[in-house]
Every structure is written in structure tokens, then in C-alpha cells.
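REQUEST ID: PR-0412
SUBMITTED BY: lab tech R.K.
PRIORITY: routine
TASK: structure prediction, single protein chain
INPUT:
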Amino acid sequence: MHYSIQQVSEMLGIPIQKLRRWDEQGVLIASRTDGGHRRYSRELIDRLAASGLGTTSDKTNAELATIRKSLAEKRRVIQLLLDSENRYRDLVETSHDLIWTTDAQGRFTYLNNAAYEIFGLAPKDLIGRCFFDFESGASHISNRRFLATLKRDGEVKNYVSHLVTSKGQDRWIGINARVALDDNGAILAIRGTARDITEQHLATLRIEHLAMHDALTDLPNRHCLQRRIEEALAAGGVGALLFLDVDHFKYVNDNFGHRTGDHLIIGVGSVLRDLMRGLNGELYRLGGDEFAIHLPAALRKEAIEVAERALDAVRHYRFQAAEDKLISNLTASAGIALYPFHGNDVLALLSNVDIAMYQAKDLGRNRHMLFDQDSDILRSTHRRIHWAKMLRDALDEDRVVLFSQPVVRLKDHKTMHHEILARIRDEDGRHIPPANFLEIAESLGLIKDIDLRVVEKLLAFMRENHQIGKRVRYFVNISRVSMSDPDWTRRFVALLRDSGVNPSQLVFEITETAAMAEIDVTLTFIRQLKDLGCRIALDDFGAGFSSFYYLKRFDVDYLKIDGSFIRDLATDEGSRIFVRALNDLAHGLDKQVIAEGAETQEVLKLLSEMGTQFAQGNQFQRPVPLENQPVLELETSASAA
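STATUS: complete
OUTPUT:
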């Protein structure tokens, strides 16, 4: 394969000294043996000898120059390949993500050093094993599901698996994989990456827990109860629902303070939780001093027995309100409704059990009442007649009044937009807040007229105050009923067209509850308004966790974080975790965040640090009539978007 320098000298007729000089100059390069002797490529020397190198100097020099150029190019290419391989090896071995390959059966053939973090073992100790040897559950089931998906689709993305490391530590990992096929289409190998997502997974579980549980007692909350009742009604079963309300709770708050009131609620919750341990039932805290008990498969007799035991437990509870004050005469009132007899949908059942509870209070408290259909009809009829007349008169006499509250940019505390809040002015000139009439307006079918009247008055205000074409935006709440009515949308489009208002100045707020009530209706409404140029905000976001899954499909521009998470942001770590996660989520989806109920400087500072762009609350300004609100001038402020 090689010639010595003496052989080359004889074959080419070139002196040995000249060959040595050519070697040093890079003209005709020789390799070296372990002993330092020069060796020349046989193929190269034979070519040079055949070309007559030793006899023609010009020809020799040209040939050698060509060879030298070719060898230099080969050396350059080889060096590039070596550099590329070294870079690849450095990236793979220093990556925090696990990079792996397996055979066709999923047994590891290669892993990088991230294997230590994922499995607690060195890569060499994992060769021949697979992911699901470490699966916390039934590994063969997970393995079959994983491989079946790979065979069907050719790849798997974000496959989440719960593993237990060699040291007994829990790990949640997200796996991405793709198959390599042979010429016959059979799986030859599997390649992919994996990432430790334990921290994100646990944070998500924590967020879901916070969204579905009461922060004070850690009991499941109203959203959780509604979901459970929906499931029970959908299954076609029977059962009972109890509402319990502590009697005269306001007295405790007024005389001993809200902190003492919170401790009382915690104590009552603990008493009821102890009671439920021996019963086939579920305990919830609905808010304030109100609790609920769900008894699946229970009928009248069992429900009454549980109500009596719950009231008795509250009566025997002794609460230390202060160092020298013991509350020993605590009582509660309870309402009972049976499903499907007293309501075959969630709203009807909750409304009827609530009525039964207040019937117990009206009859003297410290007792339970089973929902009475007849008395409810009478009570409901009187209430509906009263509100129907009041709301219709308010519409006919133009007593719908627009209030507004500023939406403030946190980086400079500058007012950028306004939220429009509807009020009804009664015959005495007092303004009735929407919480008092919206629900009954929906049940009476008047909410669509109120929503349209609000929009109509807002468009007129914008036109009269020369707000058309400016960058300021007005946020308007829209009800679920209006959102699902195509005729309402058509009427709104006509109003908008005639007003001359820039559609992008209108932001329609959809509550999370309304958005999730009918997903397809929500998506259709959002698409229609976005096509017009309007903006969309998802209001009360975070109050229920169910919308997280659909958030990517909801093409909204703003997320308004529910005030229940903002008000105690400075004192509650759980709320801080939740709000920070919502900000990260919103920023990742390119949506702007508005925090509702921002009331203190400390909360505003925390929100700014979390990346929240806007805030709204009485800290800046309480709602005032729109006509009294200073008109914003934002023509040149691009950041107002």
C-alpha cells in the first residue's frame, strides 16, 4: 500500500533530499510510521511515475499542484465533518433534554447524559431497557399504547408518562418519538427526545385544584359541585342536594371582624367534614357562610336524616371567637332538593334548593326544609312579576344608565380603555347594580334588549363625543343569551354600520362560564365579531378550569383574570402561583392580560412583576356615569392596543 522514500526516489528519478524538501513544503506529502520513516501512497506514486514526473519538470510541477489542491480540499472537507460531528456530540451530551434511540421493540440502544436526571442511572446501565420499565402504573399497558400509536401515525408528540426513578422519585416526562423504517416499511428503530415536565405538571395540578377548591377551607367549590351535579343528572340517577347556611353569620363578622369570621367558617367546615366521613356524600363550600352536601342515590328520608345530623353537628360546635368570648349557640338553616324531581338541570336544581334554604330561614332558622313546589311557584311568580314590570319600564322609559371604570396600563398607570357597566335607575333615582337584575332578566327574556340598549347608547356616546377612530377601546359585557341569538347579532351589525364607529374600538366581554356553556355557539359568535373587526375579552378567567383546554380555540384578544385571585394576591401563595401561570399562558398565546379587582399598591407591584399589562379596580377609580368620565385622547399611542 505504501512506498519508502528510497523507492519513490528511484521510481521518479528525484533525489531523496528534494523529496524531503517537497514533503516539508507540502508539494508531495508523505505519511510517517511509528519510527518516523516517510511513506508514500502507492496509488499516487504509480500515477506520478506513469505520467513521467521525473523527466518533465513543468509537467511534474503542474501535476503536483493539482494533487496538492485536491488533497487540501479533502483535508478541508474532512475537518468540516469532524467539526460538525464534535458540535453535534457537544450539543447532544450537554442537552438537558433526553436524546435517545431504541430498536424496533423500544429497547434503548443510545441515551445521552440527561438519562441521569430522568432515570437516575447512567446511559450504559439503561441499554436494553425501555421507558416503561420505570412506569409507575401497569407498564405493559403504557408500552402497548405508545407503540401502537407509533405504528399507526409514525410519530408521537408530547406523550406524557409518569415514571419512578431508580431512587424512587416521581417524574412526569413528555416524550416525542419518530420511527425509522427499512426499505420494506418495517420499523427499524425509534428515535426521539424526552423532557422532565414534573414541575409544570405539578403546577398544572395545583392550578386545577385551586380553580376547583375553596381557598379558605380547601373544600370543593361551587364550580366543582355544578360539574358533579351535571354528571349525576346526565347519568339519569337520583339523589339529593342540601344547602346549609350559618345563621346570623353577619353578627360574627360585624362584632368580631372578618378574620374571626374566616376562622368560624373553617371550624364549621371541619365539623361538617368529620360528619361526612361516615356518610356516602360529598361536602362543598359555596362561598360566604354557605355549604352544600351532595348525596348521590339518596331519597327524601336519607336526605332529611343527613340534614338533621348536619344541623345538630353545627349546634354542638363551640367556637372561641375571642379570648373571653365563646360562641356556643351557633345554628344553621338547611334546604333540601331531590333530583330529578325538583330540577332536571343544574340551574333549576340549584335555584330550588336555594329557595328551600331561605324558606327555612324565613320560618325561624335552625331547621331544614324540603323544597315545596307550591310555595316556590307563589314566591317565584311574585318576584318575576315585580322584576318584569321594573325592567320593561326601565327599557320603555330609557332608564338604562351606562357607568364606566377605567382600564389602566400598569407600566405608567395611564388610563387606556374603559369597561362599560350597565345600571337600572329606579323610580326613586337610585342606580340598581347588574347583580340584582341580570339573572332574572335572562329568565324573563329581557337580557337581549338590555344588551342591545347598552351597545346602542355606547355607540351614540362615542359618536357625540368624537371618539370615532381613536385608539381608546370600550369593553362591553355580553350575555350568553344574546351571544347565542343570530337575530341579536344582525341587529348589532346594523347599529354598528350606521354609527360609523371603528369596530376595533369595541371589545365584547364573554364570561368564562358563558363561553363554556355552549362551545360551538361561543366559537361562532367570536368568529362573527372578529370578522367585523371587533375585539374579544374572556372575562372572569380562572374562575373555572374547564376553559383552559379550549383557550387556543377561543380567538380572544384579552384575558381578564377573575378578581377573586387578585384581591388576596399579596397574602396568598396559591393565588400568586395561579396568576403567574395565567400570565405565562396568556403571553404564550399572544393575548393581553387585565387583572380585575386590583385594590392595593402591593398587588399592583406584584402584577407588574408577573407581566400583567393592565389592571382595573377601585384603587384607580370606582365606576362613575359614562357621561362624567373624562374623554381619552389616544390617537398617537400605539401601545393602547
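NOTES: The longest strand covers residues 170-181.
REVIEWED BY: pending
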